[in-house]
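Two folds, back to back.
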Amino acid sequence: MSDKIHDLGAGFWNIRGTFRLGGVLNIGTQCSLVQLDSGKFIFLDSYGLTGDVRDEVMTLTNQGQDVEAVLNVHPFHTVSCAQMAKDFPQATFYGSRRHHKQVPDVQWADDLVESEAVAKRYPELQFSLSQGIHYISPNEMIHAGSLLAYHLASKSLHVDDTFMSPPVKLLEKVLPELLLHPTTKKALKNETNAGKTYCDWATNLAHEWRDVRNFCAAHSYLVRFNEGEFEKALLTAIDKARPKLEQA
């Protein structure tokens, strides 16, 4: 499986990358390139660009000079941050507290990626931080929490881990089109009604972002939805999980 870049229109490109567990099993990863109203660009997530995909990105961004920032929206996706900083040294790098700790060689901005200050800086995007579950779990194996980014102009949702599509296209015949991350229950905060808080947050998101057409998830593949399908698929996933999450 080679890296691919998908032009989703209106200044949004999703890059499907390679990430191998133990150097063997490719579970995939992603980053997205967004053109701002100013003409400059930002990345959502870091990825080590190579080959034809790198060439296309460099052509789009004036050999990288027009990339003004990289927003690392998942606290556990840190592997490519240092490489990205070398590739785009003039860009401002935003991350979570865990990014700052895990990759200290990168010159991180003081504003955390999930902060209101960063959200206000990029009105082309809407952001939502997962609720009821840990954004940065104390258990390093639990990655369900993340900062989601929705690009209204292209109707593209960039999400790492929190929501997923079936890992293999053939599974669409037997599984719903969207899944909650398998560690969601373990990610719940030790708070009263944490499960309800999470399910209510996700339900509201399904309604607010009902117009999503392009679902870009890290460890699966790009899913194209028709009108109304995203809302229905996410609500189905939430309704299925709600009893177990609310009883946790």
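---
second:
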Amino acid sequence: MRSGVRDLPLWAYLPAVVGMALVVLPPLAMVEKTPWHDFTSLVGSESSRQALELSLKTAALSTLLCLLLGVPMAMVFAAHDGVVMRIARSLVLLPLVLPPVVGGLALLYTFGRFGLIGKHLSAWGIEIGFTTAAVVLAQTFVALPFLVISVEGALRTTGTRYQQVAATLGASPTRVLWRITVPLLIPSLLAGAVLSFARALGEFGATITFAGNRPGITQTAPLAIYVQQIDDPNQALPLSMVLVAISLVVVVAVHGRARRRRGVAAI
């Protein structure tokens, strides 16, 4: 048994069990209530299929955007620690605690038809609000901080000694980036990308506010579940279980990677 854990007082187990029950029982209740005999037909219905396909496609695109934008951002944050950079970092991480509906409003007033940037795009005939592109932007807005945190944490942990050695040997900054920094970041990149994908896949508030709920265009799986449960909650359960399964896979994958890293560090 680990040091410190064996000295845990017995009373601590009671709130721990209550907390676990609070989190574990609701998914188990969904499993028990799901109409498994109609599972395939309900998940395979046109509305559910369209919503799930749209969610997977837009979540994949938003994850790609998170990688393209988040990795350089994390590198900048890890390399500099001034007041301005700390303020910028706080603003970038704001979506982690910002209510999703508020984030959707912020996106609407930025990229909507009459928004700060959207009004200029509209003049060129480019509309973003209430389109599939709006779904991708909303998902990227809420998922980007997860990638930034994962990569920045890895950069601060590994340090810069390898990069400094390569630089003294005459390697250019670009060569150091691609030959040393990026390979060191691959495990954290994968974990951050998986977390970002899962967060994008489950996004609801910012999406419905900024993109709307148009079937086949902006209605993602969470929005379809919301509509289905209004008419018949049992019809929403199969698609909900699909998202639960995907989320469970993400949790197991990220947790397993963390355990492997701790095991290697212990060796």
